[in-house]
Automatic annotation (TrEMBL):
Family annotation (Pfam families): MatE (PF01554)
Cellular component GO terms held in the UniProt record: plasma membrane
Organism this protein belongs to: Hydrogeniiclostridium mannosilyticum
UniProt xrefs under InterPro entries: MATE_fam, MATE_MdtK, MdtK-like
GO BP terms: monoatomic ion transport
Compartments where located: Cell membrane
UniProt family annotation: Belongs to the multi antimicrobial extrusion (MATE) (TC 2.A.66.1) family.
Membrane-traversing stretches: 12-31, 43-76, 97-118, 138-158, 165-187, 193-213, 316-335, 361-378
Protein name: Probable multidrug resistance protein NorM
UniProt function note: Multidrug efflux pump.
Taxonomic lineage of the native organism: Bacteria, Bacillati, Bacillota, Clostridia, Eubacteriales
Protein's membrane topology: Multi-pass membrane protein
Keywords linked to the UniProt accession: Antiport, Cell membrane, Ion transport, Membrane, Transmembrane, Transmembrane helix, Transport
GO molecular function: antiporter activity; xenobiotic transmembrane transporter activity
């Protein structure tokens, strides 16, 4: 059931690994998109704006969890590449313990901080209660998200990108059904959409767990695997923490920027939120190549195949550029029908304002999309070999740009604010590209850590 990425054609291996992963990423986005579509269609534009506003806050916490589990999977991929099954199982066991502890702490903190944070973000009065109802439920279900991300990260570290996909498809269908049932028939409002997401993620995680226990002999645990070892926990946190904080630092910038966008009112926020959903969809091939190169780099670095690693990074860049071109074409020609999936109403003038806001943002984004693609490749390649400092600094660069633009929002207007995220991509990507090429040999010949 595992896939060894240290032998064979890099391009064929990366494509075979990335296609199921891409489908899985699209279905993962499907969770949030279905929430937004059903909320927009059944509950109106204010509720849609609320779900959009919630994205930046949710990203702050769940992004931290995603980065952390991603860092853990880097260590696991290196152990798998080195052929050390005992250390592989122990790393998975310690990852599980750490995830449980961190999930509990984050749930308590995030639930308590939700309302004050929404007020700090200048959330419009007509949407703040909707936003709170959605966000707080998602935060109550943090453990479900961490649960699924950790198990799927372990499987991908072992080269299996198909198993998480199968169960994610099941969960996505369940999410659609529960969305409609909770909102249309149980009248649970935006909280119903959040509960549908949490329940679906939990189901997907449990299905992955049961299947893995039966089909992956390499993960048959023994009592000794669960013995707490400070060295292993320290390594996992040393690799995982910078990746987690990188996500959170980026999220802080997104929150500050969202606060600036909120000043333009709920209609503009709804348009921006709908455009952001389309943006997230066209980004999925780029994010997929990032996860692919992280696993590829981790396995080949663990196996000591440095030349093969460098070759894989170069070819991943070309695959990413091709995916970027496709995303740009989709956003340019099909932005309106995609945005209209989320926006509804009878007031043509209001809908027109929201559509114009969405178009402005998407047309600006596609100009800079190539920087995002390169950011995913080089950031994940560095993380795959255990080098997380520069990716963390890239997150700091993104934060600085977004905050600077947000502070100028009253002067530069909505269109100017739309440039914040794309410029932040460039500010983060360029230093990482330079870092990879200048220090490539030095980085790859030193021990990871």
């Amino acid at each position: 059931m595992t896939r060894d990425l240290t032998q064979g054609s890099p391009v064929k291996l990366m494509l075979a690994f990335s296609v199921p992963l891409l489908i899985g990423n699209v279905f993962q986005q499907f969770y949030n998109m279905v929430d937004s579509i059903i909320v927009g269609q059944y509950l109106g534009m204010q509720a849609l704006a609320a779900v959009g506003i919630s994205g930046s806050i949710i990203f702050l916490i769940l992004g931290f969890c995603t980065g952390l589990t991603g860092g853990f999977s880097v260590v696991i991929a290196q152990r798998f590449g080195a052929g050390d099954e005992d250390e592989l199982r122990h790393s998975v066991a310690m990852s599980t313990v750490l995830c449980i502890l961190i999930s509990v702490v984050l749930t308590v903190i995030s639930v308590a901080a939700t309302w004050p944070l929404l007020e700090l973000m200048n959330t419009p009065e007509d949407t703040i209660q909707f936003t709170y109802d959605y966000v707080v439920v998602i935060f109550y279900g943090i453990s479900a998200s961490v649960f699924y991300n950790m198990i799927s990260g372990v499987l991908r570290a072992l080269g299996d990108s198909k198993t998480p996909l199968y169960f994610l498809i099941v969960a996505s269908v369940l999410n659609v059904v529960l969305d409609i049932v909770f909102i249309r028939y149980f009248y649970m409002g935006v909280a119903g959409a959040a509960w549908a997401t949490i329940i679906s993620q939990a189901v997907s995680g449990f299905l992955c767990l049961f299947y893995t226990a039966k089909k992956f002999p390499v993960l048959k645990f023994q009592r000794k695997d669960w013995k707490i070892r400070a060295s292993t926990c320290g390594l996992l946190m040393r690799i995982g923490s910078p990746m987690a904080f990188q996500f959170s630092i980026t999220a802080v910038g997104v929150i500050v920027l969202q606060g600036a966008i909120n000043r333009f009112g709920s209609v503009m926020v709804a348009g921006f939120s709908a455009a952001a959903k389309v943006e997230q969809l066209i980004e999925q091939p780029l994010a997929t190549m990032g996860v692919t190169i992280a696993t590829y780099a981790g396995q080949n670095y663990g196996a000591g195949k440095i030349d093969r690693l460098k070759e894989g990074v170069r070819k991943c860049v070309w695959l990413t550029l091709a995916a970027t071109a496709l995303g740009m074409l989709i956003a340019f020609f099909f932005w309106e029908p995609l945005v209209r999936l989320f926006i509804t109403g009878t007031d043509d003038q209001t809908i027109g304002i929201a559509l114009n806001a969405a178009q402005q943002y998407l047309y600006i984004v596609i100009i800079f999309l190539v920087f995002l693609g390169l950011l995913f490749v080089y950031r994940n390649a560095l993380q795959g070999v255990g080098r997380s400092f520069m990716p963390l600094m890239g997150g700091v660069a993104e934060l600085v740009i977004r905050v600077a633009v947000a502070l100028m929002a009253p002067l530069i207007g909505y269109a100017g604010v739309c440039f914040a995220t794309p410029i932040a991509w460039a500010a983060a990507a360029i230093p990482l590209i330079i870092t990879w090429f200048i220090y490539e040999k030095k980085i790859l010949l030193e021990p990871a850590g």
